[in-house]
Amino acid sequence: MSKAGEKNTLKRKHQAPFKSPFQKDAASRVSEGDQQTVDLVKDKLKMVDKEIEDLKSQGMEEAELQLHIDKLHEYNEIKDVGQLVLGRLANLEGVRTKDLYDQYGLNLED
């Protein structure tokens, strides 16, 4: 075969764009287990969206939720400070913090 014939043969072999054997399309990369996980997450998202719509239909608003979240943060900060104070008092008095709850009429569950 002549050089011109060889070039034409080589060209024809390589006319298609290079496709790496390591690259797969997105659909083939998702395993069956992964797809089940994706489906579960989608189902959970639908449930949460429905709950949000139900709450909105009952008159609740996101701004109200943010207020409750802010109040919970404030409560937790105050509670943490109270725990620190009780811990210091217990240390100074040489007793357990739990004993101070009874002494000051506090509920252990709070």
Architecture overview:
The protein is an all-alpha fold and 110 residues long. The protein has two domains: 31-60; 61-110, no CATH class. The chain has helices at 3-13, 26-29, 32-57, 62-93, 97-103. 0% of the residues are buried. The model has no long low-confidence stretch (mean pLDDT 81).
What structural keywords apply?
110 residues; mainly alpha; 5 helices; 73% helix; 0% strand; elongated
What would you say about this model in short?
The protein is mostly helical and 110 residues long.
Task: Characterize the overall form.
Answer: elongated
In whole angstroms, the N-to-C terminal distance is 92 Å
Task: Output the radius of gyration.
Answer: 33 Å
Class by SSE composition: mainly alpha
The low-confidence parts are none
Domain count: the total is 2
Beta percentage is under 5%
The quaternary organization reads as single chain
Helix content: over 70%
